[in-house]
Amino acid sequence: MKDWRYHFAEHRGTLLAAGVFVLMFIIYASNHSAGFSSNVVTTASNKSVLLALVAMAQTMVVLTAGIDLSVGMVVVLTNCVASWIVVGSGLTTMAGIFGVLLTGVVCGGINGLIVIYGRLQPIVTTIATGAVFFGVALALRPFPGGGEINEDLADSITGKLPGGIPASLVCLILIVLIVWVPFRRSVYGRAAYAVGSSEVAAYMSGVPIREGKFAAYVLSGLLASLGGLFLTFFTYSGEASAANGGNYTLYSIAAVVLGGVSLFGGSGSAVGAIFGAFMFSTIGDLLFVFDVEPLWQPLFRGVVLVAAISLGAIRLFQIRNRLDLFG
C-alpha cells in the first residue's frame, strides 16, 4: 500500500496534467465546427508537439534547480540552421538533420560548461548565451526564408499515418522513449534529480553531480534543436525572430509548471511537461473556439500561469521535509 502511495505521489503532477488536458481537449473538440475529426486532432498535435519538445528541453534544466532562458533562442537558431542545410533528399537531408541536432547539443554543452565550471547561476548564464545564439541566428537569416526544404519529409512529419494518427504525435512518443526514458533510468538522470533536490547532499553521497548536470544541459539543447527542426518542417522556412524565441521560452516555463515539475528542482517528469504543453496549447484553442477577443487572450494565459505557479508554491510551503514530496 505504501509503494502505491509513493508512486502515486511521485506521478501526481503528471496524472493531474493528463486528466485536465483530456477534459480540455474534449471541450475543445465538442465545440469545434469540424468536431472530433482526424484533421482537428492532427492540427492540434502539430501545434502542441513543438511546444512539448521545448517544454521537455526546459524540464531537463529545471530538474537540476535551474531555468534555461536560452531554450527559445536555441529553437530559433536551429530553425535557421535547418532552413539552410536540411535540403535536398536522402543522405543530404540526413546530414542536414545531424548538423541541426549537433548545433543544439553544442549550445546545451556551452550552457552546461559555463554553469558547472564557471559557477554562474543558470538564469544569468542562459540570458547571455541566448543573446549569442540569437545573434548567430540573425547572421544566418537576416530575413525570413528557406532553401529547398525536403517537402516529402516535412509533409510526412506534419501529416497523418494510416488510421488518422498524427505523425508528429508518434514522433514525440519515439523521442520520449529514445531520449527521456533512458536518461530518467540512468545514473546521470538520477544525479540530475539528486542535484535538484540538494546538491550538497548529492555531493556528500558520491553522486556524479557534474556529469548529471552536464548531461541535462546537453539533452536540453538536443530537445530544443528537435523543436527547431520541427518548426522548420511546419513552416518550410527559417526566421531569426526574437519575439518567437522569447515566447517559446516563456511558454516552456508555463508548460513545465502546468505539468507538475517543481521550479525548485528535483521533482517532476518530462512526460508531465508534455501534458502541460498540451494544456497550454489547448488553452489557446479554447479561447479561439469560444471567440474570445484576441486582445484578452494574453490576459487569460497569464491568469492560468499565475494560478499554476501559486498552487505549486502553496504545496511547497506546506512541506517541512523535502522527502515528504514523495511521502
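[next item in queue]
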Amino acid sequence: MKHVSILVPRGNSILSSVVGPYKILMATNQFLIQSGMRNDNYFDVHLVGLDHDQSLYEGLFSIHCDSTVQETHKTDLIMIPALRPDKLMEDLEQNEAFVPWIRDQRSRNGAEVASMCMGAFVLAKTGLVDGKQCATHWAAMDVFKKMFPKVHLVSNKIVTEEDGIYTSGGAFSFLNLMVHLVEKYCGRAAAIHISKYFEIEIDRKDQNQFAIFQGQKDHEDEAIKEAQSYIEKNVQDKISVGELAEKYAISNRNFVRRFKKATQNTPLEYIQRVKIEAAKRSLESTGQNINEVMYQVGYMDQKAFRTVFKKYVGLSPVAYRSKYNRQHANLERAML
C-alpha cells in the first residue's frame, strides 16, 4: 500500500487540485479491486495540512484534513496542489512550514513528490528540483525563472518526471499528471480506465498550444521596454537584432545581454514569439489562409514559418487552425 499525502495549503490553493487527485486515486483503488488485480486498496490517501481545518476562497469552501504534517511521520508520495496566482507571494509565506517537512520526508523516507501547476513554487523552495526539469503554468514562468534560476524550467511539457520528482503544467493538466502516476504505479490498463472514466485525454505531452505570450515587461530597463513595444507594433516587419541595438544606441552584445536579463528571452526569441502569437490570433479568428497569415507576421518562407510555429506552439499552423477556428473547421467538414 502506498501512503499518499495530498497537501492542503493555507490561503488560496486551487480546490480542484486537492479534490481531483483524491477522486482519481480512490477510483483507481476501486478499479484495481473490481478487476481482480488487488484485494485491497493500493493508495492510502490522506489530506495533510498545517492545521486540521482549512478555509479556501475567502471562506466559501472548507477542507477538513485527516492529519497534519506534525502527525504524518512517514509518507510515500507528497502531492502539492496549485496555488492561486493573485496572492502567490502571500501564500508561499503562509505555507513555508511545508518546505522542511517535504525535504525531511524526501531525505529520511525517500518520499516521492509531485507538484501541480503553481504548486511548483512550493516544490522549488525545497531545493529538490535544483538542476532538474520542472513544469508550471505558462503564465507564471517568467516569475518562476527569476525566483528559481537553478531549476531547469521547461515550457512545453505537461508532465515531467526525474528522480521521483513529478511536476505538471498549468490548471487542469494535473489530470494528465494523475494518469501518468496511475500508469507508473498500477499499469497501463488502470491508466486507460481512469482516462476513459474521467474523460481525460491520455498521453497528452505538450502545453505550448495553450500558452498566450503576453510579453515580459515586469522590469526596469526602459530602453528594452521601448524595444519590446517597437517589436509588438511592427509585427509585420522583418526586424533584426542589429537594427534594434542601433535604434536604441546600445552595442549589439550589450543589447542582447540586457534584453535576455530583462525578459528571459533573447531578442530573436522575443521577436519570434510576438510574431507567432499574432499568427495564432489570426488563425483562431479569421478566414485567412496559412500563407496570408505568414506574410502578415513578416515571414516569407513557409518552411521557416512552420518550423518556428511548431517550436513555440507544438502544433503546425494547419493543425492549430483546425483545432481552434471553429468556423474554418466546420467549413472544411462541410466540404468533405
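[queue empty]
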